Fold:
Amino acid sequence: MHGPDMWRKVILRTDRCTKQLHHDVNFANTRLERHFTNLHSGCILGRKEIASMTQTETLIKILLIHGPNLQLLGKRQPDIYGHQTLEDINSHLREIALKKGVELKPFQSNYEGAIVSEIGDNINWADGILINPGAYTHTSIAIQDALSAVNLPVIEIHLSNIYARDDFRHHSYVSPVATGVISGFGAFSYDLALEAMVRRLRENSGE
Ligand code: DQA
Structure:
């Protein structure tokens, strides 16, 4: 093919490539704008650069720990703990975490030692810890020690308002080493805790 027809095809193809490139840049911009200041408008990036930046967008890593009996959520005393299952809570939280550029690692155990190990094992992975320690809230010096040892921001979460319940629930071994405590908002306590943790971590990193 020669002449004007060939040039029309070349122009069309170039136009399509330019549109795709703009689309990719916009996509990268919207997803990364909070994290990258070097993405000026008008700056043309190659696909490889965009791909590598997209890979690094998950900057914050949060460990989410659920203590004993929380695997029974949905069935366990729904008048106190609500109807949502643990899987409902984890998948909802993962979804909102992703939108915030956060990688969330949920973990549940009924064993104090397993929780202690999970905290220690993530000393180099996690930027922060969200924890609903269940009944271990009121008994576990070992969990308090593990949280102190890793020295990360911690938010203690409870579905129920522990201060409006039995006297033995009024004392927490975790609160003294927590950045903050959110208690009494049902499954929404987790949303609030995630929001608070992300803000705290972004403040700490000067974003
Ligand atoms: C709980 C409160 C604790 O007192 C209780 O032992 C739990 C759940 C809550 O989420 O409200 O297991 O942590």
